[in-house]
Structure formats: C-alpha cells, structure tokens
Amino acid sequence: MSFPAQFPEGLFGSFDNNRPVHLTRTRYFHARLLSGDMRFSTDSSYIFYAQYLSELEQVISKVSIALRKSSGKDTAGNNITASMLTDRNQLKSLLSTDQGYKFLTPIRGTPPYWQSVLKDLLATIRQLGIPTWFATFSAADMRWSEIINLLMEQQKSTQSFEDLDWTAKSEILRLNPVMNAVMFDHRFHTFLKEIIIKRSIVGKVKDHFHRIEFQQRGSPHAHCLFWIEDAPLLDKADDQTISTVDPELHEIVSSVQQHSKHHTKSCKKKGTTCRFHFPRPPSEKTFISRRQSLADPKIKKPPQQLKDHAQSVLHNLWTIINNENLGDITTDRLFAAAGITQKDLEDASNILTKRNTVTLKRSPSDLWINQYNPDLLRCWNANMDIQFITDAYSCVMYIISYISKAEREMGIVLENASKEAAAGNCNAQQAMKKVGGAYFRQREVSAQEAVYRVCGLHLKESSRKVQFVPVGHNPVKMSIPLNMIKMKANQLKNDIWMLSLYDRTESAVIKYPRFSKENSPELHFHANLQLFLPHRLESQLKPIQFKTYEEMFMTGSVILPPAKQPVSVKSIVDTNRLLFEQNVEALDEAEELLQSDGPQEDAWALIAPEAEAERLDGELDREQLNEKEIEVEIPELDTFSRKTKKGHDIEIRQTLFPGPQMKTFIQQLNSEQKGIFYRIRQWCIDKVNGKNPEPFRVFINGGAGTGKSHLIKCLYYEITKIISPHSVNPDDLVVLLTAPTATAAYNIGGTTLHQAFSLTKSLPLPYIYLRDDAINKLRSKLQNLSILIIDEISMVGQPVLLYISERLRQIKQSRNALFGNICVIAVGDFYQLPPVKQKSLYNLKPDSQFPLWSSNFSIVELTQIMRQKDDAMFAQLLNRLRVKKKSDLLRLEDQTLLKSCERHTVPPETLHIFGTNDEVALHNNQMIKSVCSITQTINALDYDKNPETGRLKGREVPYETSHDFLPAHLVIGPKARVMLLRNIDLACGLVNGAMGIVTEVLPPKQGSSSPEGVMILFDNSKINQNKQQSGSKHQATKITMFEENLAKMLLGISFQFNWLGRVPYIRCRA
C-alpha cells in the first residue's frame, strides 16, 4: 500500500531503511502513530496496515522461536546435540508436541494468548486465594468531556462540549482512534492507581489483575480482579461486612447503570426471561443465598414441598412487580402486596439457588439498576459492575472463564488450520506458517484494538508476574539461536541451552504441571519433590535406597540445616506447598468441571450484564449478515411472500434528480418559492462554513397547484449539493424526504415516515424508546442528517409528530432539543386529508401535551397557483372552494362556472366514489361482468395453527372477515381495472393506490390450487417490480399472493390476492 498523504515525497516511509540504530517494525509504527504529526494517527487504514505488518513480524519470529523449543532429550531418551537441531528431518521429530497453533501464544490477543492467561489466573488464585471483588469498567467517551475537549483542541475546533450532539461527538472520536485509545488507557490506569488502590475505596488492595476487552463495536472494557487485605470470608464473617447501600446518583446512574426496560434482542434469545436477570429482586437488606441440602434430616417437610412453596413466594412477588406501576412504593409495602416477608424471600432464595449468590439491598425503584459503588461510579462516570466473589466454584467457572475468554470463532479457525496442516503432511515450519496465515485472514480487529496492539498498550496486567516452572525428567528448554548452533555443530561440547529457571532468583507466582496421583503417581510425586523439597542435585530427590519417588515421599526423611534432626519428607513438602496453594480441593473440582464442561457462557450474563449485553448484541448483528430467512412451510402452496423481516432492517429510499433538469426547475420558481428556497440555501451555506446556525422549523403552506412538490425537489437537490460534499461519507443522508403514505412518498422520491423512523401502527403514549439494537441501525443511517422534509403534513397526526421528535432525540442523543436539533420542513395543506384515527396537528387544547406544532414552526404561505396558471379564473375558484365553509353560499359566478363543467354522460370505466362499501362492491361486480369476458374466483387460503401440534392446517372455507379489510373471495379476469391496497415495494412504485389493468391471470403451479400470480399493466409506466428493468419499455408486472397474520384470536395465517372491489391488490391471508 502507498500513503501519499503521509509521504507526499515518497521518502522515509519504509522501516527497512538503513539506520544507525536498528528499529523494529513495532517501534517504527509506535513512533509514527504517537508522533505530533496527526496524518498517521487519524488514518484508520494506516493503523490497520501498521497492525498487520507488526504482527506479521511477530508471527515469523515466533515460528523461529517455536522451532528452538524442545525438551532436553528426544523421544528415545537420548540427549539432544547441536547437529540434531540443524537436521530438518530430526528437527520435526524433536518438537515436544505439535502444538498446532500454540506458537501464537506470545502474540497478544490471539486465542492461545488468552488460554495462557486463563492458566496464569488459575495459578494466581491457587497461590493468592480467591479474589475479593470482580469489577468491570466500560468506556463512555461520549460522556467524558475531557477527551472530547482534547480532541477538539487538536482539531482546532471552537465548539464547546455542551453544544455537540451525538453525531458531532462520534465524528470527533472517529477521527483519532489513537488518541481515543491512549486516553482510555491513561484514564483507566490513573483511576486504578489513584482511586482504587491509593484511596482504598473497596478495601486495601494487596494484589490485582485486569484485562482490556474489545467487543464487536470496538469499545473497550476493563475486567478486573482485586485481592483485598483482611477481606471478609463467606461463612467466616458477618453478612453485614459486605453490605452496601446504593444511593441514587441521579444522572449518572440513570444514564449508564440502568438496564433497558424493553430488553435488547440478546436478553431473551434463549427463553422468555431476561438472561441478565433484570429486573433484580427487591430486598430490605443485603443477604447471601447459600445452597442447601434439602435431604437434611433436620428438615421435616418433603423437598418438593419446600421447592413448591419457595417458587410460590417468588411467583407472588414477581406477579406484583410485573403487573403494577411501582412508582415510589416502598419495599415493605411491595412485600405486603405480594403477601410475603423479607424472611420468606431469603428462605425461598436459599432453597432455589444453585450457587452462593449475594442479593443486595434494593428498593423497587432500583430493580433495573446494575450494582455499583457510588464513589467509583462518580469518579469513573461510565457503566461499571462490581461483585463480591463468594466461592471457588463461582470464581473459576464464571469469573475466571469470563475474564480470560477468547474469540470462539477465531479459535475454531486456527484449530481447523492446524488440523489441515497436519493432514497435509506439512513440516513443522510450513504448518506454523499456515496457521499464522489463517490468523491474519480471519481476525477482526477494531481501530482502537489495533492501536493497543501496535503501540504496545497492555491488554492485561497483573500486580505479580506468573512464571511457569517445568518439572519432570525432560522439562522444556530454550536453545540458543540457530545461527549459533550451526557454529557449534561440529563441536564435541553441546552447550546449546540458554539459562533456565534454576539460574534465576526473581520471585513470582508459579504455575506448574499437576499430574494425577491416581493415573501417574511417579510423575505426581516427582513433581512435588522437585517443587517443594529443597535440593541441589536431581539425585537427592530419590536416593539409591528408594525405588520410587512415592516411596521417598511417604517414608523418606532429610536433615535441613541448621536443624540437626531428620524431618519427614512428606511434612516438608506439605508445609511448603501450603505457601503456594489455597482452597486446593475446591479449585481442583472447579477446574475439572471447566475442562470437561467448558465455560458456562449463560452465566456470564450475570457477571457483567451491560458489557456482556453489548458483546452478545454485536455477535447477533454479525450473525444476521449471513442469516437466511426461515419461512413457514405451507402445504400445497408455492408462493413468493414479502414478509416483514424481524428486527429493524431499514431501507431508506432517496431519489437523485439529474442536475440539468433541477437547474431548470430552480429557474422556474416564482417569487414566493424563491424566498423560502434561498433562505434555506443560506442556512446550508452557513452550516458548511462553520457558523453553526440555529436549526429552523418551517411550515410551507399552500393549496393544490401552488408548486409544493416542485419546491421540495428543488430544496432537496440544493441541500444535498451544498452539505453532502462536506460529510465524511458523501453518501450519508444529510436531507431526508418523507411522507405519511407510500403514494405521497413515491411521488417525491422519498420514503414513508413509518419506514424512516421505525414507527409502529400503534404509537402508545408516553413515548416508548426504541431498543438499542434498533436505534443503532437507525443511527447508522441518519447520524449525519441535517434537514428533514415531511410532505402531506395534513395527514400527520399528533402522536406521529411526537414520535418523530423523540426518535430524532434518541438518534442524536440530544436530551431536550426538539427533533434532536434537526431542521424540519413541513409541507402541505391542512384543508386536505386529515390523519387517520388521530388528531390533526392544529387541533390542540390549551392543556395539550403536543406543543410541538403551534409554537415551534414558522409559516410560509404559497398563494400563486402554478398548475392552472394559464386559467386564472378557474384557479381562483379552486382557492375559494378550498377555504369555503359548509354554511357559506357559493357566489353566482362560481356556480355558473362549475355548472359549465358538468357532463351528463359519464364513461362507465371512470373511477366512481361511493359512501358505503356495499355500493362499491355492487358497482365493481357490475363492471367485472361488463368488462371481463372470462372471470374466475380466487379464494383466500387460510390456515389455523393446531394448539396441540403447533402445525398449520388449511381451512376448507376462508374467514369471511379480515382485520386489514382484504376480501376473502376475489372475482377477477383480464381487462379488470385494479388498485393495490398494500405497499409491496416503495422503490419500484408498488404502493397502496397504484392502479392498472389486469392482462393475465397465471395458472396455478403443479400441486397448487391458487393462481401463480396476476399480471398487471400499471398506469404509471415507471412502476416495475424488478429494479433492474426500470429502464425497459412499459410492461406488465407480476403480483403474487400476500401473507398476513390474522388477529391473534384466530391464530392463523392467510394467503390471498387483495384488492379494493375490482380495483385490487393481491392478498394472502393466514
């Protein structure tokens, strides 16, 4: 790759340049990224390039080191000589084991690296004991004003932190991932040193460990373990020792500690209850639930009866919590409403718990709040989690496995690559290179993680070093470099090994192989003697009078100066081992379960709920990229159904108008249109020039024919032309064209309000926030939105406008700003159609909760009629009719003009409007008989779900009514005039209201009883279901059956062709 912006003259871009002092690639890139020249640190491509090359160098180096690792003897027990290590064939057999991808262990972030960390942590808790606290601290750079202010200072920005919305903050952070990562690292280490350790907020920390994890979205989390001096021990200290009261920290708690009450998509992936156990149970005090044996003879009641009673207690409590608006209710009142007491809650928890757990004192108002320490939360100012570790099982199975977890997919890829290399009969070096190549091809790294790895920022740190101690007859040794071995190949002296641990004296946590006493007794006792019996020579571990190491351990004795009496070897070993091992039996049992059953990933949701929720949501997002849609198999029906996909997949349609045509349109604007056009144009110019103009909200009012749609197209073109080139991505949406109906949206080249903002049919009040996964998808589409245009504003009801404003607030993360500080252009005429089943925006009461419209929009009136400008008299008549009240009398000249337009003979094919549906049906049946020589009746195919088997079974007779007004029986034939009643594809113009003529009813496919589809020649020649054929000649479009879910009480699915009378849309209902 070449980087002309970084190296405009093509000089100094290579790390291979001859230098007086040798510089590794890692040190070269470290200097580049952390230099004052921000051309390197602000270019993500350069960061990933640096990460790739620096780790490529490490992989090559580790392959060489792996080839130098071996035991002191070969498989036959012979000593290894220098000549053996220079022979390729012997070298392959000398490798202690084909570790597959284990040679990647020293490369930070790889699955073998985190497997090594797991072993280090197990050794640490074996020697230091169970940690006291587990804590997680997440990044919240959007809240940390010091980071934003520093980055703005570097970028020479004059804005203040308070003036920035979500989009502006994210853009600032995106532009410099290096500084963002470095600042998080600095902030966390300062917080760890100055707050947690120095101030002893959670106790005097005697040892600690932490790991930095980067999840799917790239944000870092710090997972920590703290060993506290004189910490309370379970069952050895009073519960009140670890009791804490959660004071309300208002804004911080509600912003970063509250779990989503609507749950994310990962919350209930495997069941109906939240996997993160929210809401949490209320309690009047903190207590510890301990596993109990219900078979205790002291317990008189049967175990099942105890369980049933405990479940009944909790069921009553959760019934009240789930069905009541708790408000400010106290815990004792809540318990009274549920008919239980605090003791009942504790007893039920003790009976039903599967492991020792801590239940914190929690009021009903805090059920959705994740636990925290108030002082740490106030200092960190971002999401945190802190938990007391109760026992060895929880520590190993849940916490240690969680904190040392690797990327599962990456581990599988490397294992498969290793197996393929072995199956292909590759030599050791080729196999390692193949595994290394798989690592680089498949690894997913965020920009900030790449910075951590290139710049040498620590992904894990511990207060104590962990050192592996090899034991046994053939401990692994490190040879001297191969080039030095070749020089000694012909020498008799075989001094080829580097210094071993026996030559070093630095203290550390030790880890060592633990052999089974039952399966490998000699290895077990030999290792224990090597580790815990003082000796100078290997022969002292088994003198000649002992046949086995076990015999030496059990019966031997030695004299250790300055003592003069012999001491039992067993007592010496046991005493010394206690200095390095604690909770041995419990830890051994937990480790065996971890190795046999694997990590309990479902329990990770309880360890760090918010961090784990973000990780799982990220994995689900990635899974959905390749996820195939699963369709319900309907018997005897082969049909294409445009189902609504689960989730919130958003496709926002925007039309690009040709420049020459738009210049002509702009020249045709009248003086009224030009006034508002150039006012908005000037705002756009001020914005791109950095003047930060105040957002505007304007209502462009005008009757039919005043050029509103014409003005919308001109505004859209000009806004896009001015603002888009200044966006980071020129394809980002800076102006959004919307309308309340698909027909209106198609006419202006936009999208519907419901599709653009993920609105549902019912809009309950108060406003319901969109889930995190859904709002993130919206935010990715609309993060750079500056102006929203709403056409046909008369059809927008009060709840819809409120939801639009709140959605934009949620997208932009602006707390109190109307419409998220987005400019709004509302276009329409309130004399035209009102909203369906909602109140119009102008229909406000004095105490209305919808003040959005009346006090926040300025009005621009378009009065000059452009559509009938050549017939001024008729245009003026239309304006007078537009504002006429029912009680007003028509002027005489208006009556005369209207009567002159009457036609006494009306062609039968003309669209008729009736007052009732029965009249519509009667007229359509008559027209079908007169127009269509051949007709056929298409029945809806309705299916009921069997409540016992869950399978769908077809009904002989379809339901006569449908909640979406689609007919159960459709009489149709060629030449019938039809109208779509459902939106099929907005981009292609297949929207509700599109009209055309049936050209053919396609016969059923084999095995089906319903037509394959109906061919319709639409009036609008631009309508075509196949986008790729949009430029072809006017041709008929195939409309297939439509699937709908019937009312819940019917529990069925229906497929049918749906039409309005004989102006149809094709319907399937189920």
UniProtKB/TrEMBL annotation:
A Gene Ontology molecular function term of the record: 5'-3' DNA helicase activity
InterPro entries per UniProt: AAA+_ATPase, DNA_helicase_pif1-like_DEAD, Helitron_helicase-like, P-loop_NTPase, Pif1-like_2B_dom, PIF1_helicase
Swiss-Prot/TrEMBL keywords: ATP-binding, DNA damage, DNA recombination, DNA repair, DNA-binding, Helicase, Hydrolase, Isomerase, Nucleotide-binding
A Pfam family: PIF1
Keyword Hydrolase: yes
Domain AAA+ ATPase: 694-847
Catalyses which reaction(s): ATP + H2O = ADP + phosphate + H(+)
Cofactors demanded by this protein: Mg(2+)
EC number: 5.6.2.3
A biological-process GO annotation: DNA repair
Family membership noted in the UniProt record: Belongs to the helicase family.
PANTHER family referenced in this protein's UniProt entry, alphabetically: ATP-DEPENDENT DNA HELICASE
Official protein name in the record: ATP-dependent DNA helicase
Taxonomic classification: Eukaryota, Metazoa, Spiralia, Lophotrochozoa, Mollusca
